[in-house]
Structures are given as C-alpha cells and as structure tokens.
Design brief:
Blueprint: E1 3-8, E2 14-15, E3 24-30, E4 35-42, H1 55-61, E5 67-70, H2 75-83, E6 87-90, E7 95-96, H3 97-110, H4 114-123
Parallel strand pairs: 1-5, 5-6
Antiparallel strand pairs: 1-3, 2-7, 3-4
Length: 129
C-alpha cells in the first residue's frame, strides 16, 4: 500500500512553511518499505493576508494526497483540506521530512491508526477490506 504525502518545505529537507504562505510542497509516495519524491511544486511568494483565493491552487495540487505536513495551517484551510480528504498535520518547525517518512513507514508496518488507517482503507480496492 502506497500513500501520497505532501510536505510544506522550502528546501525539501525540513518542514518549515505555513500552509497558506508555503512557497513549495514536496510530495512523496510512501509505502511500508519504500519512499520516493514524486513531485515538487513551487509557488510565488504570497503574504498571509487572509485572502482565500491563494489556497485554491495549493489545495488542488494536494488532490490524492492523504496528508500535508506543515508548520501551521489556518482554520479555513483545515476545513477545505479535510473536505478534499487531505489530513493537515502540524509539526514543530525544523522537523525533517525524512523523520516523518520513517514514522509513517513504521506505522504502516505496525498497523496504521487514526487518519493514516482511514487513508489506507480508502486506497484499498473495493472488496479487500
């Protein structure tokens, strides 16, 4: 089972961006024993000014992702992400992408819980539950 996970990161190493003002997302395909970078999307710099329109492209980009890891995310973005089936996950600034990938791989091997279990179940072909 593979899931797509996005990371709000300016350098593809650490999670260091606020969702709404993120300049880039690194999207990884993660399985219990593998992980690979599948896409990097960069955005022009935008201020955290409360304008919702700038979220549209970011939320559209994350279509198909199980989660997005970010330093911070606003309430309206959370609602919109959840409506798209994308779990927003807030982490401490400076958390490395590799450490989160390792944590997710361990959870996939040990039996996922919470949002990860829902994402895995959603990704399974019908009739395999």
């Amino acid at each position: 089972m593979q899931i797509l996970v996005a990371f709000a990161s300016s350098n593809r190493v650490v999670i260091d961006q606020h969702f709404g003002a993120a300049s880039a997302f690194a999207i990884h395909e993660i399985g219990a024993d593998s992980a690979r970078l599948v896409e990097v999307a960069q955005f022009i710099e935008t201020a955290m000014d409360g304008h919702e329109g700038k979220l549209d492209a970011k939320i559209a980009l994350l279509d198909g992702c199980a989660a997005v890891f970010t330093e911070a995310v606003g309430a309206s973005a959370i609602q919109r992400l959840l409506a798209k089936g994308v779990q927003p996950v807030k982490v401490e600034g400076g958390t490395t992408i590799d450490s989160v990938i390792e944590m997710l791989q361990n959870e996939l091997r040990d039996g996922p819980t919470g949002w990860l279990a829902k994402a895995v179940k959603k990704g399974m072909p019908k009739g395999d539950d």
